């Protein structure tokens, strides 16, 4: 079964085709939710972000000009809304649900525990980064945008994006090394 292109679905959705609209939403619903979850750290905030982005999409789909990929345009909206939510947030929320993102093979119980611990640790350290750095890491690693695409979305230079990305990686590396030293000292 072939997959319709975003452009084809957009054209039909603008024309009133509800099925095309639903396919477009279905295609990006999960990636947008997990983007919000990793960036905002809360399932409720991730759902709020998803709902907000879909409302904006519904109202503004006809304004998509095709200057960049639809995914890039859509995540640009999500970036803006997420950063706005982070600015408005007064206190840091805790990540309250466990999510297993990798279900390829059935790992042993010890591997599962280690994987969950590592994943929790990385998510915790990601939340400690400044929002601008966290956003770049999210877009680069999880959404797999190029530095140039991220620069276009955020209206910044590629060098600024690279600088934020590598500064974030350095901070994460240091924080994770310290966390592993503290963890091993507790055993």
Automatic annotation (TrEMBL):
An example Gene Ontology biological process: DNA-templated transcription initiation
Span of domain RNA polymerase sigma factor 70 region 4 type: 120-172
GO molecular-function terms, A-Z: DNA binding; sigma factor activity
Record keywords, A-Z: DNA-binding, Sigma factor, Transcription, Transcription regulation
SUPFAM superfamilies: Sigma2 domain of RNA polymerase sigma factors, Sigma3 and sigma4 domains of RNA polymerase sigma factors
Coiled-coil intervals: none
Residues of the RNA polymerase sigma-70 region domain: 24-90
Matching Gene3D superfamilies: 1.10.1740.10, Winged helix-like DNA-binding domain superfamily/Winged helix DNA-binding domain
UniProt-listed NCBIfam families: sigma70-ECF
Family designation: Belongs to the sigma-70 factor family. ECF subfamily.
Full protein name: Sigma-70 family RNA polymerase sigma factor
Species name: Rheinheimera tangshanensis
